[in-house]
Amino acid sequence: MKKLTNHDRLIETGRERLQQKLQERRMAAMAAKTDQERDRVNAILSKQDDVEQGVDRRKADMQRKLMDRIEQEKQQRADGKPLNT
Description:
- The chain is mainly α.
- The protein contains one helix and no strands.
- It is 92% helix and 0% strand.
């Protein structure tokens, strides 16, 4: 009877260790999945920032070109030259 009790305790202890290891692996897997998702989101946000900066640069370039053209037309009017259309 004593041998059975010891054997049962060993089985129970082994089962508890196994459950603990499984829980640790689950937690590690969940953390890895979370890290992957966070990395993916950060990559998307970084790409979005790059696109927005590119749009802002193009907008600034277009505004500068427009202002240059307006200034050029004003200068041509002041000089009495025909406008280039």
